[in-house]
Specification:
By secondary structure, this protein is of the alpha+beta class. It folds into two domains: about 20-215, Alpha-lytic protease prodomain-like; about 220-295, Alpha-Beta Plaits (2-Layer Sandwich), CATH 3.30.70. It has eight helices and four strands. The radius of gyration is 25 Å and the shape is elongated.
Length: about 300
């Protein structure tokens, strides 16, 4: 039985300008300072909603930092130990960030319920002024990330996060206005619960996707049966088996397979099909004249 291994790469670029990366780094520090101001203001004003917005803003600030680190690490070349490179650093960072987001959401949920049951007097004007500042910073950060959001999903997520932060700040402003002009203190707990619900929901929705990538699961948009049908339509391909498809990171999909054929030069055609039809960026194809059958366990 004769085997021939062919490795193919196709380039899919998700380039982000160096200027955008530098601006994101500045945004991270500004958002961290804002979170500190919101926490101090929340403690002074007695507002759990403002503290909740600070926790959410801190989580999103770390999302920005993770994005910056991922862009930097992703540029590093593969090594003898890390042969696939460092593209999964972004996914690992995202996983840690999701855990922190979930824990913060649960903490805020408990605090919000407590404030609904036993409302406390809070300083609405402090809440309003700090939240207005937060809203302006959220809008500015969203504008920075929007520049590259249309061609890079990581930047798109940063943009969505900051847009959501802006709406959160508006909610806290409304909370402050209700306190100042209507004396409704329970609104603070209600806004906190809304922010907590959003944080927990966001963590729960994103968790399966990240775990699937870490577990080398087949990407949701890939149908292995469809891949098999498409490859078998290529002239000269007798069979395709031992198909493995997984995500290297959020953008890049890899695949390895065995192809039974007498044409030892068919691999580039198969790679082109996988790239054009299924957006598979990394292919490792083993060519064999005789089906290996049970000799290969994976």
């Amino acid at each position: 039985m004769e085997h021939n291994h062919i490795h193919c790469e196709s380039a899919y670029h998700h380039e982000v300008s160096e200027k955008s990366v530098r601006l994101l780094l500045v945004s991270f520090f500004i958002n961290m300072l804002l979170s500190l101001a919101e926490i101090i203001g929340g403690i002074v004003a007695g507002s759990v909603a403002l503290i909740g917005d600070a926790l959410h803003n801190t989580s999103d600030a770390f999302s920005i930092l993770i994005a910056v680190i991922a862009f930097k690490i992703g540029c590093k070349k593969s090594s003898k130990k890390y042969t696939y490179g460092f593209k999964r650093a972004e996914i690992i960072g995202g996983f840690v960030n999701l855990i922190l987001l979930f824990i913060s959401g649960c903490f805020l949920l408990i605090e919000g319920i407590g404030r609904l049951i036993k409302p406390q007097e809070i300083d609405g004007m402090i809440i309003i002024w700090i939240s207005v500042l937060a809203l302006l910073i959220d809008i500015a950060t969203a504008k920075i990330s929007h520049h590259d959001a249309h061609h890079n999903s990581n930047m798109k997520m940063v943009f969505i996060h900051n847009l959501a932060d802006a709406f959160g700040s508006i909610g806290v402003i409304i909370s402050g206005l209700c306190v100042v002009y209507c004396g409704i203190y329970r609104i603070d707990g209600a806004i906190a619960l809304l922010i907590a619900g959003y944080m927990i929901f966001q963590a729960a929705v994103s968790f399966p996707k990240i775990v699937n990538i870490l577990m080398n699961a087949v990407p949701e948009h890939i149908d292995i049966a469809e891949i098999k049908r498409a490859v078998l339509q290529i002239d000269g391909v007798a069979d395709i088996h031992h198909i493995h498809v997984w995500s290297i990171n959020e953008h890049d999909v890899a695949m390895e397979c065995h192809i039974q054929t007498c044409d030892m030069n068919i691999a580039p055609q198969v790679c082109a099909l996988l790239s054009e039809k299924f957006a598979i960026t990394h292919s490792n194809i083993q060519i064999e004249k005789i089906n290996c059958g049970d000799e290969c366990s994976l």
